[in-house]
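Internal tracking record. Fields below are filled automatically when a chain is submitted to the structure queue. Please do not edit lines marked as system-generated. If the sequence contains nonstandard residues, flag them in the REMARKS field before resubmitting.
Queue: standard
Priority: normal
Entity type: single polypeptide chain
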Amino acid sequence: MIAVLLSGGFALAISLLATPLFIRYLVRKQYGQFIRQDGPTAHFIKRGTPTMGGVVIIAATLIAWAAASLVTRNVPSASALLLLFLMVGLGFIGFLDDYIKISRQRSLGLSPRWKFIGQGLVGVTFAVLAVHFPSENFRTPASMHVSFIRDTNIDLAAGGATLGLVLFVIWANFLIAAWSNAVNLTDGLDGLATGASLIVFGAYVLVGVWQFNQRCSSLASAGPSCYEVRDPLELAMVAAAITGACFGFLWWNASPAKIFMGDTGALALGGALAGLSILSRTEVLAAIIGGLFVLVVLSDVIQIGFFKMTGRRVFKMAPLHHHFELSGWGEVTIVIRFWIIAGLFVAGGVGMFYAEWVAG
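SYSTEM-GENERATED OUTPUT FOLLOWS
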């Protein structure tokens, strides 16, 4: 438990203190945000605000987790390393996207084709490795069962190991793409995605700690009263580091933002959330805990689908937060209320997680 607290505390301190230094560096290099012309006009004043702040979030997470592991003499586990690989890998794709936008002064970065290829390479590598590295209890970091609060009876490997691996890779990459895009779409107002991520990853700290305290000691003891997660405490450490990093970054990212996380941070956080859901065996539950991100994506899907079918729009603008912005709501009002909604989804998800354990 001390390792979890140290991981979160170190990340908060690093992010809080390092972000202003990174802001000064970006200002000196003139690495500012390019604002899309078809967005809300109120955003034009944000042009030139330093971006790529996700670099700080990623760096703070890595350093804090490593420092906490070193202090507590905790040997890095396969689950933690895989989760960090996914986070850093997608963050690097986002960094390339941000850099192209800045260097070419346009709102489009990497082409969809290259972004898809990059995310696919990282996602496939993660998925393949996640079903290897069994522990002494023969548990691998991920399972080929589709999971809700724990593994369900839906076994992707029922048709054979090779087919199962292919299906699992497809399923894992769907989750990775969905969550990375969901966080990216939510990152449209000052502090919105950072604050929502802070709440969601904070919930996964609780989930990881609880799974560690109620872990199955062996395959023979597996059942509804314990969890078959390979490295729950290590996952809680990484989740705590991400939570602390977002907390420190939010000080500078809240309205009026001094820095944006950019695609670097959004893709990294989305990838980390997908990885946590897969490795903690809570793939479907994550859609409830991260319900705000799901709502934002649904608003975009509804807007596009309805417009293609009827030529009319459901919202004044998608994603959802821009609809309220064009309806006259203040940016801070929207962000705070969306944070409240995120908190309600997290409370519902964590409550469901605990209720399932109580019910046995």
